[in-house]
Amino acid sequence: MKTFALLPLACALIAVTAHAAPPKQAAIVTKGKNVSSGNLSLNIATIPTPPTGTTQVDRGSSGSIDRQTYTTPTGTVITRDGRGRIIASSTTTTAGETSTTTHRDGDGRIIGNTYKSPTGTEYTRNARGVITTTATTTTAGETSTTTYRDGSGRIIGTKYVSPIGSVTYRDGDGRITGPDFK
Predict the structure, then answer these.
(1) d(C-alpha 119, C-alpha 10), whole Å
(2) Per-residue pLDDT for 72 more than 60?
(3) CA–CA separation, 94 and 33 (whole Å)
(4) Residue ranges per structural domain of the chain
């Protein structure tokens, strides 16, 4: 008995078995269709294609990858450094109008969580449960302003989104800054 197996092509595994005697069951366990005719048995097994998510790649000035963020179909966000090591992950659980996102470091330890209330306010807590930032968004027409406050309630920055989609960040003193308010 001779068995020939072809490599997976287009997510399908094909095994062809030629027999000198009446066909016997092939050594390959398959799910799918089994077509038998005379001394030739053809087993086809389909391998399901895993669902894909989205990937965002941040590159440095030299073009090398600084950071890569992958969002799975279930909503888990995995962040890797330039060498491919996991440096952070976030998993979101939603119930009605509320959601909780758990943030973990590269070793899987919880470093904090973000809770979004039905009113739209987001509370971010550290690993000890202390509120570190609060984000409140107000919308007027097609514009929105998000105010970020520290654990003491002081404004650390605002994010303004114009009707055409332009985003402006300002620090607590009103100076235009980047997304990190620095």
Answers:
(1) 47
(2) yes
(3) 40
(4) 2-46, 51-115, 130-182
* Of 3-12, 56-65, 109-118, 163-172, minimum mean pLDDT range: 3-12
CA distances 133 to 11, 100, 150, Å, are 46, 15, 4
Structure tokens at 175: 């100076």
Q: Which residues contact 139 (CB under 8 A, 6 or more apart)?
A: none
- CB-based contacts of 181: which residues, under 8 Å, 6+ apart? 148, 156, 157, 169, 170, 171, 172
What residues have CB less than 8 Å from 5, skipping those under 6 apart? 13, 14, 15, 16, 28
The Cα–Cα gap between 76 and 29 comes to: 33
For residue range 117-147, what is the model confidence (pLDDT) as tens digits? Answer: 998 899 999 999 999 999 999 999 999 999 9
pLDDT in tens, 152-178: 999 999 999 999 989 999 999 999 988
